[in-house]
Amino acid sequence: MTIIFATYVLIWPALTLGVLALICRAVWRDWCDARRQRRSLV
Fold first, then answer.
1. What residues form the membrane-spanning segments (predicted)?
2. Cα–Cα distance between 24 and 15 in angstroms, integer?
3. Which of 16, 24, 31, 38 has the fewest Cβ atoms nearer than 10 Å?
């Protein structure tokens, strides 16, 4: 039971890191596209 609980607790930082990486990658791609087209990101 302890192994299951430890896995459950430790999976959240990994999921959070994955989502953060996905968001950062999308913003980076949008920024590069905007820069190439010489327009504002906002």
1. 6-28
2. 14
3. 38
pTM, entire model? 0.74
Residue range 1-42, pLDDT digits in tens? 899 999 989 999 999 999 999 999 999 999 999 999 999 988
DSSP codes of every residue in 1-40: -HHHHHHHHHHHHHHHHHHHHHHHHHHHHHHHHHHHTT--
Task: State the Cα–Cα distance between residues 42 and 23, nearest whole angstrom.
Answer: 16
Three-point CA angle 35, 26, 38, nearest 5°:
10
